[in-house]
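pasting for ref. prot 1 ->
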Amino acid sequence: MAVFSPNEEDPQWVSRDLNKPSKIAVVFVHGIFGSTKGTWTTENGTTFFQLLKADPEVGSRIDIYAFGFESKMFGDSGSLDVREGANKLRTYLSGAGVLDYPAVVFVGHSMGGLVVLRYLTSDLDKDSSLSAKVPLVVLFGSPQEGAQIASVAKLALSNAGLAHMKPADDNQWLQQLTDDWTNLTHKPQVVCGYEKVPTFGVLIVPWSSSNRFCTEPGLAIDGADHISMVKPDRPAHPSVMLLTDAMRRHVLPKQFGGRLETPDFERRGDDWHFVMDSVAKNARILNIGTADIKYWFAEKSDPALYLVPDEGPATVVGNSSQNVKFLLLANAKANQYSFHLKTSMHDDRRVIVDVPDLDRLRQQMAVLSRSILRDLNQHLAKYETTPISAGQEQKSPVVLASVAYKSVEKNLPGLPSAATWVITADALSAASLNKIAIEALRKAESVSLDAVRSTSVQDVATRILFKTEEQQIFRNVPMHKLPRKQSGLESTPLDRLPHDAGVEANMRLILKDSASSSRTSLELAERMKRVPSLAGSGFILEGEVQSASGDAQAADIAFKKAFAIEPTPALQQRIGKP
C-alpha cells in the first residue's frame, strides 16, 4: 500500500446528476500526503463516497465533490500550506458550481480540516448566503491543537504544509485560526472523529488535539489509525455512522423541512393556473415547513405581466407566508400569460395566468388613470393664481409625479413603494403624460435599483422614453436599446414599433361614457400648456383627447404644436412628418 503517494488527481465531482442536482453538496478535503480520491479508498477499492451514497436516508439527497491539492511528502515543492489550500478550495468550489447548492457540507481529514476551517473563517461573515448554506463541518483527525508528529517530521522533511501542523503552543498560525473561528458571528456545527490506534508507532492526532472547534463530544473511531479512519470498509463503520448521523440531525431537517404551497394556484396537469379577474391581485406563497425557502420568477412570456417582488430571490421563512402581487400594465393585450416559479427546493412550477375578461381589466386601468388626471388637475388649479416664484416648484414634473403616486396608492393600497412608482409611471404614460412618468420611474430607481432591472419595468421605461426627448431615464441602471433617429427606426410605422402602448385606445377607455373625464382632461391640458416645463405634454394630452373623441383635425393641430416644442420620434410618427 502506497501510503504517501503524490496527489496527481484534480478536484472533481464524484457523484452528480446534472439533469437533477441534489440540494446538498458534500465536499471531501484530504490531508497532507493524501490524494483527492485515494485518501478515502480502501485497498480493495471501497470508497467512503460509495458508502455515503448507499445510506438509505442520506445517499439519494446528496452530490459529492472531492477536492484535492498538491500533496507530496518529500522535496522543496511539497504540499500547499493551509492558507494556499484554502485559497484553492475557494476557487474550485466556485468554478465547479458547488456554492450554487442550497446546502454545502464539508468533510475534512487531517490538514484538510484546517484547510476547510481557514476557508470558512475567511468567508462566512463576509458572505451571508454562504453562512446560510454551510450547516455542518465533519473533521476526522484534524490537528486543532497541532499534531506532535509534525514537529518531528519537520526536522526531516522540507514541506511547507507541516509548518501549520505544529503544536498550538508553538504555532502562531493555529492560534490565529482559533481566534478567527471564535470571533465568527455565524458558525456551522462541527462534529469530530478521532483515532485510537497509533500510525507507525505514533498517535498522530490524539483526542486532546482533535476537539478544540467541535460543538459536541467527539467520536472515537475504534480500531482505526490516522490513515485508515477515513477508509471505511462497510456501512456500519464508525466514520460513516458519524457523518450520516450528523447529517440527519443538522442538515436534512433544514433542507427538507421546508414545504412550499400555493393555494391560489390550481393544478391542471403539469401546469398551475392562476385566474386574474382584477388589474391587481394577490397570490399566497406558503412555507408550511421549518426550513427557509427562496423563490423567484423566470421566463415570463410577456413583460405586460408585472409580478412583485420581481427583482430577484425572495425568502419565505419556515411556517410563514408571503403575498405575490400580480398586476397587468397598460399595454396588456393577451388573455393568457405564463412564467416559471423557481425555488431553492428545486420544486419549479410553470404558472399560467388566465385573464378571462381583459376588457374589464382595461376598464379598471382606465379608472386609475382618470383618478390621476383628476388629482393632477385639482393640484394645478390650486396653484394657478400663485405667483411664479412661489408656485413654480409645485407645478414641476417631480411634484406632479408625487401627486400621481398618491392617487395610485389610494386606488391600489398595499403595494411596495417601488412598485407603486412603477404603476404610477405606467398609468401616466397611458394618459400621455410621459414627462411626468419619467420622474415616477426615477423615484422607483431611488427606492430600489433591483426593482427597475425587472423586465416589466424596463419595458415601461422603453415605451415611455420613445415618446420623450430624454436620452436616459435611470441614473444607475442601464436600459434596453431604443429606436432613435440614428438607428434608422424612427420611420417605422407607429403600430409596428416595439413596445407600442396603444395610447389612443387607452384614452378612449379613459374618456368612455364620461363627459366629465373629457372635460377634466382638457382642463388639465390647458393648465399644463401654461407651464413652460409642461407645455409640450399639455398639447400631447389635448391631441390624444381630441383624437379619442373623434376630432382628427383638432388632434393634428395639437400634435403639431407639441412637436414644435418636443420633436420626439413618436410625435413625428403621429403627424406623418418625414
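and prot 2 ->
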Amino acid sequence: MASHSGTLPTPLQWVTGIAAVGSAFLAMDSLRLFAEAPLLDFVITVQNHYYYALMGLLLPLCFLIYPTFRSPKSYYFDSVLSLAAFSSCAFFFVNAETMLDFGWEFLAPSYAVWVSYLLWVLIMEAVRRSGGMVLFLLVLVFSLYPIVADKLPGPISGMSSSLSETASYHVMSIESILGLPFRAFAQLVIGFLIFGIALQQTGGGRFFINLAFAVFGHVRGGSAKVAIVSSGLMGSMSGSVITNVLTTGQMTIPAMQKNGMEKDYAAGIEACASTGGVLLPPIMGSTAFVMATFLNVPYTTVALAAAIPAFLYFFGLFIQVDAYAARKGLVGTPKEELPSLSTTMKQGWFYIAAFAVLIFLLVYLQREAVAPFIATGVLVVLNQLSTDNRWNLKQAASFLVATGKLLMELLTIMAGVGLIVGALSVTGLSGTLVNDLLYLAGDSTLLLLLMGAFSSFLLGIGMTVTAAYIFLAIVLAPALIQGGLDPMSVHLFILYWGMLSFITPPVALGAFAAASIAGSSALSTGFKAMRLGSIIYFIPFFFVLEPALIMEGSLLQTLTATLKVAIGIVLIAGTLQSYVIAIGFIDRPGSLGAAGRILVIIGGGLIALPTTEVIGFNVGQVTLLIVGAITASMGILISRRSISDSVLVETEAS
C-alpha cells in the first residue's frame, strides 16, 4: 500500500475518524452485533445498500489523504474529486434496489451509465494513488479489456461489450467492483484490520518485542530470533510487509547490529520475518479470510492448513540464524540487560487475553465475522484499565485516523481488483486462460507447477499481498486445480509464490525497505534475504506433493511428513551457513568442501521431498529417505573442517 508522510490536517483527521466510525458501525450492524435485526434495516434493505454506503464513506478519503500535488493549490481539485466520489456512491446507494429489480447492470438508463463512467474513473484514480502504478496499470488494462476482447488474437480473445455495457457491468453488477474481493473485505476483513490497528496503537508491537527478548534474547543470535518472532506476529496482524518492516524494523534491526550482525544480514532477517508474517495464522494479514471465501470453506480450515508450512518457514529462519551465530561466535544479550518475562507479562497480559478471546471465537465458536470486533472491544477496554497504556483523547483520535486510512486503502484496492474479476467474468477469459495453461503443460503436473510458480512470482511483483493473492486466485488457481491438484494446496501455493517478490531481487521491496533502515546496500540485502528465506522456495512444492503437510491426512502421516521436512530444512539451512546443528562446521575450503556442501543440500532436499507420484516419478518415500541420508552423510564427511584446517583457522584468528 502506498504510504503518506506527514500528519493530516485537523479537519481531515475529523473526516477520517468519522468515516472510520461510520464504516465500523455499518460493518457491525450488517453482522447484527447490536440487535437481532440490523438497526439500519429501514434504510439498508438490500446488501448493495451496505456496499455503496461503505464505498461512499471511504472512497472520498483517498483524494484528500493522497493529494494530486504536495501543494495547497491541489486542495480544491482533490476536494472536487472527493465530492464527486461521495455523490456517485450516494446515487447508487439511493438506486440500489431499483438496480436489482430492473437489471441495470445489463440495461441501465443513460443517466445511470454516465454516473457509472464517473465512478469507474474515480476508482481507477484511487487505485493509482493508494495501490501504486503496477496495480493501476494491471487494473486499467483488464477493466478496458471487454471493450476490445473480440478484436484480440487467439488465446486472449473473448466476448466483447460496448463501453456503456462495460461501465454498467463494472459498477452495478455484483461480479466486478462489488465482486468477491470487495464482499470479502466488507463482510470479513474490516474487523481484523481494526483489531490489527488497535493492537499496534495500544503498544502491542513493543510488547511482542519485549516478550521475544525476554524469551530468546539471551541465546546465541538472540536479537535475530527476537526479530523473527516479533515481526512474524506483527506481520500476521498488519498484512503489509513494507509497513511491518518500517515499524518493527526500527527496533529489531539496530538491536541485531548491536549484537554484532552485519548490516545487510540484519536487514535481510527483518525482511524475511515480515514477509513470513503474512503467511502466519491465525490472521495471515486477513488473506486467510479471503481465501476461505474463494474456497467456500470455514476460516479454521484455512488456518489449520497454513499452520505447518508457516512453522516450517520460520523454523528454517531460526536454523539459519542459529548457524550464523555459531559460525560468527555471537553470544546472546546478558539476562540482566533484557526485560524480565514476568514484568513483561504483567505489563502486557491484556494482549494475550485479547488474543485468547479472538482464538476462542474463531476456532471454538467459529464466529469469524464477529470475532475481531469483540476481541477489539476487549483489548480497548483492558487497555483503558492499564495505567501504563491507557489512551487519552489524542491517542484515541489517532487510532480512528489510522483505521480510516487503512480501511480506505484496502477498499480502493479491493474495488480495483474487482474490476479485473469483472472483466474476466464478462468476457469468459478466465476459462480460456485455464485451457491454455493446461494445453501448454500437457500431462506434466511438474511443468504445470513450475509454470504456476513463475506466473505467481511475476504477477505478484509490485502488488500488495492481498491484491496479488486475489489476482492469482482468479487468473491462475483454476488451471492448477483443473490439472488435478488439491484446491487448498493450490491457493496456498500461489500465495507463497506471489509473496516471493518481497525478498527476491531485482524487486525485493521488503528487503529494500529494511536496507533503508540498516543503511546497507539494497541489492546486497536482497540477496541476503533470498538466501535466508530460501526454504520458502521449496515449501510450496512440498505441501502440493504431500497434502498431509496441510492437515489433509492422518495424524501419523502429518507428523511423519513434517519431521522429514524439518530434518531436510536443518541440513539445507545449516549448510547455507556452513554450520549444521549437532554436527558442527562444514566449511572446508576449496572445491572439495564446496562439492560436499552441495551434496548435503541435495541430500536434505531428497529427505524433505515427500513423494514424487504426483509429478509422474514413481520413487518411493523410503528410497528417497535412504538415498538422501547417504548423500547428505557423504557431503558432511567431505565438507567437515579437518584438524589441519581448524588449526589454521585458530592461528589466523589469534
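The mean pLDDT is 86.
Residues 10-182 form one domain.
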